[in-house]
Write a structure and sequence with these properties.
Blueprint lengths: L6 E5 L4 H10 L6 E5 L11 H4 L5 E4 L6 H10 L4 E4 L5 H6 L1 H20 L5 E5 L24 H20 L2 E7 L1 E3 L11 H10 L5 E3 L5 E2 L1 E3 H13 L7 E4 L5 E2 H11 L7 E3 L14 H5 L10 H16 L4
Parallel strand pairs: 1-2, 1-4, 2-3, 4-5, 5-6, 6-11, 7-10, 8-13
Antiparallel strand pairs: 9-12
């Protein structure tokens, strides 16, 4: 299995992770890479480099939950592979759980049903470590219990089960990649932003970072290039089919230590501001990545947290911040 002469669709392709994946896939010998995004969090400027590929890259501004639009794009472009990254994000789900759950699950149902009806060949679905909730056994293997803390996590857990059920019942060709906490250039820094872009943005304007809760909650941070490389390798790995595969660093880092590292790299000496714990906050998270490593899905040499943060900070300082 390789990408030679394949037409690949990336839903959520103008978002942070999606746009990096589009760029990575354009390095392969795909015939075309098509991005689909409704621009809820996506930004067309994230695809400036992709446009340099000329006719090998196409962008559609449509909604992946719209059956008719999705079916037309698949048919018109003779799609072989779909990478599904379209989703309503975590923080949005705290305020609007109903919409988050229905939207995320509907996208997956549409894709699974269209694959069952042979509208394309292979689905690589992006799950999330949020499907696990807080770790009860660390590091967290793929068989870790699913205890999602919010509607986003529940939607990811349900979506994964939908895909596995279609695989078991109808034999669709599918793989589920479950990334842990991804960061890097282009990460959304507007509404529903994650801690890395939020902290960098605050320091750049001379304001102290905010730590929600006691700061001892942990995450598993991976630089975006490692995640999209793993995603590309998922397609070419037969062992990835019909199952969930964790991708992450395998290193548990507290929010307190993350903020301290960013502050140090930016030569910012002011103490952080402390705020109340957020609703639905996951307490501990760390990936068991042995399967991905054994199957060479994870790259052997990965970007360290310090180096990845340094690259991300540099991107923001050179004017990479989104202009809203």
């Amino acid at each position: 299995m390789n990408f030679d002469d394949k037409n690949v669709l990336v839903t959520g392709g103008a978002g942070f992770l999606g746009s990096h994946l589009v760029g990575r896939l354009l390095q392969e010998r795909c015939r075309r890479v098509i991005a689909l995004d409704n621009m809820f969090l996506g930004n067309v400027r994230n695809l400036d480099d992709a446009r340099k590929a000329g006719p090998r890259f196409v962008l559609y501004r449509d909604d992946a939950s719209d059956h008719q639009a999705l079916e037309e794009i698949l048919s018109k472009n003779d799609i072989d592979i779909v990478y599904n990254l379209a989703a309503v994000p975590v923080l949005f789900s705290i305020d609007r759980p109903y919409r988050t759950y229905l939207t995320n699950v509907k996208i997956v149902l549409e894709l699974a049903e269209l694959l069952r009806k042979d509208h394309y060949e292979t689905l690589i679905h992006f799950s999330s470590s949020e499907a696990y909730g807080s770790g009860v056994r660390l590091p967290m293997k793929e068989d870790h219990p699913l205890y999602p803390m919010h509607a986003y996590g529940a939607s990811k857990a349900a979506s994964d089960q939908i895909i596995l059920s279609y695989t078991n019942c109808y034999g669709i060709d599918s793989a589920i990649i479950r990334p842990f906490n991804t960061y890097g250039p282009r990460q959304n820094e507007r509404a529903y932003a994650g801690i890395v872009p939020t902290t960098i943005r605050r320091i750049l304007v001379g304001r102290p970072p905010i730590i929600w809760g006691d700061g001892h909650q942990t995450r598993d941070y991976s630089f975006v290039s490692d995640i999209v490389e793993s995603a590309a390798r998922m397609y070419t790995s037969p062992a990835s089919r019909g199952r969930v595969t964790n991708v992450g660093s395998g290193v548990e880092t507290s929010v307190r230590d993350l903020v301290a590292m960013i502050s140090q790299l930016m030569n910012f000496s002011r103490s952080p501001r402390w705020s109340h714990a957020r609703q639905g906050e996951v307490r501990r998270m760390c990936a068991d990545t042995r399967f991905a490593e054994e199957q060479s899905i994870l790259p052997r040499r990965r970007v360290s947290l310090r180096d990845g943060l340094r690259t991300t900070i540099s991107w923001y300082m050179k004017g990479g911040r989104e202009r809203v």
